[in-house]
C-alpha cells in the first residue's frame, strides 16, 4: 500500500513532477516479478492510473459537466468517497501509514517528506472521506488554497450527477 500511494507524493513535494513518479516502469502491466513489494505497489498505481483513464474514456466521462476542472481532482476525491465502502480494514491501513518505514526510491525524497505524505493519507482515510476531510487533505497538499472551496463545490455537483457516479463505480469494477 505504501508503494501504491507513493507516486502521488508529488502533491506535497514541489520538486517532484509527475514524470518523476509515474514514468518509472516499462512496460506498465501487471508483471511484478523481480520487484520489491513497495515497487510492485508503485507499479500497480501507475497501471491503475492508465487503466482508469481507459475506462473513463470508454464511458466518455470527460464529456460530463464538471469532470475536468482542477486536473480531475474533484472527481478523484468523489471516487475515494464512493470506493471507501469496498474495503473494510481502514484502521489497519491508517496505523500502517502512520508508522510507515522508509523505502529507497531512487528519487531525492527525504524521509520526512515520505512520513508527512503517509500521515496525510492516514488522516484522510481515518473515516469515509467527506467535505471536511477532503478540505483538510487539500490544505495539506501543494494546492492553491484559494481553490479549495471551489473544488469542494465541484465535488458536491458531481455527487448529484448519477451518470458521473455510475461511471466512477464502473472504474472500480473494471480496473483489474
Please describe the topology of this protein.
Elements: H1 2-5, H2 18-22, H3 37-58, H4 73-83, H5 90-98, H6 111-124, H7 131-140, H8 148-159, H9 162-174
Helix pairs in contact: 3-9, 4-8, 4-9, 5-6, 6-7, 7-8
What does this structure look like?
This protein is mainly alpha-helical and 176 residues long. The chain is built from nine helices and no strands. α3 packs across α9. The radius of gyration is 16 Å and the shape is globular. The two termini are 16 Å apart.
Helix content: 55-70%
Average of pLDDT: 92
Gyration radius from CA atoms, angstroms: 16 Å
Q: Poorly predicted ranges (pLDDT <50, ≥5 residues)? A: none
**Structural class, from helix and strand content?**
mainly alpha
Strand content: under 5%
For the secondary structure, the number of strands is: 0
- Main beta sheet: none
- Secondary structure tally, helices: 9
Amino acid at each position: 500500500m505504501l508503494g501504491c500511494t507513493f507516486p502521488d507524493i508529488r502533491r506535497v513535494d514541489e520538486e517532484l513532477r509527475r514524470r518523476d513518479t509515474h514514468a518509472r516502469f516499462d512496460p506498465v502491466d501487471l508483471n511484478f516479478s523481480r520487484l520489491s513489494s513497495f515497487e510492485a505497489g508503485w507499479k500497480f498505481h501507475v497501471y491503475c492510473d492508465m487503466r482508469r483513464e481507459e475506462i473513463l474514456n470508454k464511458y466518455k466521462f470527460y464529456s460530463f459537466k464538471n469532470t475536468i476542472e482542477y486536473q480531475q481532482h474533484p472527481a478523484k476525491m468523489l471516487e475515494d468517497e464512493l470506493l471507501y465502502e469496498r474495503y473494510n480494514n481502514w484502521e489497519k491501513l491508517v496505523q500502517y501509514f502512520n508508522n510507515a518505514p522508509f523505502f529507497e526510491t531512487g528519487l531525492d525524497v527525504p524521509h520526512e517528506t515520505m512520513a508527512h505524505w503517509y500521515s496525510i493519507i492516514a488522516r484522510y482515510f481515518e473515516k469515509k472521506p467527506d467535505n471536511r476531510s477532503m478540505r483538510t487533505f487539500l490544505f495539506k497538499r501543494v494546492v492553491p488554497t484559494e481553490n479549495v472551496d471551489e473544488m469542494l463545490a465541484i465535488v458536491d455537483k458531481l455527487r448529484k450527477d448519477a451518470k458521473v457516479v455510475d461511471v466512477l463505480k464502473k472504474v472500480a469494477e473494471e480496473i483489474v
